[in-house]
Amino acid sequence: MLTAQPAQLDLTIQRIGDAGDLQRLQRDWNRLAGDVPFRRFEWLEAWWRCYWQPGMELFVLALRDPAGELVALAPWYARRSALWGRVLSFLGSGQVCSDCLTVIAAPEYEAAAGCALADWLAGDARDAWDLIELDGIEREDPVIGRLLSELALRGHVVRQRERIGAWRLELPGDWKSYESRLSKSRRGGVRTLEKRYFQTGRAVLRTADTAEEVERGLEILHELHQKRRKSLGDPGCFASPRFANFLALAATRFHQLGRLRLQWIELDGRPAAAEFDLSSADTVYHYQSGMDPDAAQDKPGWLMQISALREAIDQGFRAFDFLRGDEPYKSWWRAERRPLAEIRVVGRSATARLRHRVWTAAACLKAWQRRAKERLRRKSVS
């Protein structure tokens, strides 16, 4: 077990590498995570259970004050890569695409946590990692920002780049006010669909309230998501047994917490669209969806989105978070974009720096090739 105590900050850092020790952190972990579902123990521990494989190990860092109280937590894991060496990333990374991940900390300890982690990573733990790889990070994240600036001061190569955005819609107090924000054409389309499908009873919203309904809702989501993705030539998330098992476990846990919003639209008595969302006290987080491409003429995606947004407004939620991904439909529903960063921090060993130089050269070559192809395309068009 690696430990360090930066005297100037008076915080003790302990690496948690055992699943049993992780379980004992649950209560304090969730206290720090606040109301964000993707930061909670239930979500990230479920990911570890379902995605662990040989070569991976827990690398959760617990920061405590002099009284022994947990004041910050870095929910990381380490994996061994033939190309990069020992890589640290957030639990919940990869295929699951967990959003809002960060080093969770009590507000008064955010700066101290960033400094303490930098001291530990550059000092006692300098030989325990070769690369820190974080994705989908908010550009203004206070703890991550402080951590990166402190690591740079200690001689580490820190690389940040914007990749995609996350989209969030602030909700008004009533549906009529929300409709007024939409473009004229979309507002007209929404009203037409409401009259043609909901008011006539052709479309009905179903919500999973019981454990049996959650199981049924997951089956519907699985079927519709896969059907839609395959129609687009994509294998779909549920092609991975790990993902299917993870989402089932997460659904059970968040249903027990009263934070699962698993809904589907029945069109003429048959499921046509489904949506898997999670909630906090004031925000709905839209995580996964599916629709029947054979019903495309009836706009099942629109029907599902109308229902989800209207339900959220009627139930008093203040925001609907569409999460990461720059799909055009998010702006059509009047969500606003927040930039997300991809971050790489290179260890100070000669091997880690050499690997980074090779990676940088390869990235530059790929960028040059893309520009060359674009120039050729423009020339052929002209």
Task: Explain how this protein is built.
There is one protein chain. By secondary structure, the protein is α+β, with helices and mostly antiparallel strands. It is built from 12 helices and 16 strands. The protein has helices spanning 19-23, 26-33, 41-51, 110-122, 142-153, 175-181, 184-198, 211-231, 241-257, 300-314, 328-332, 350-381, and strands at 3-4, 12-16, 56-58, 60-64, 70-74, 76-81, 85-90, 104-105, 131-138, 157-170, 203-207, 260-267, 270-279, 283-291, 319-324, 336-346. It has an 11-stranded mixed sheet with strand order 3-6-7-9-16-10-15-14-13-12-11, sandwiched between helices. α3 runs antiparallel to α9 (241-257) and α8 packs antiparallel against α9 (241-257). The longest helix is centred in the C-terminal third of the chain and has 32 residues, at 350-381. The radius of gyration is 23 Å and the shape is globular.
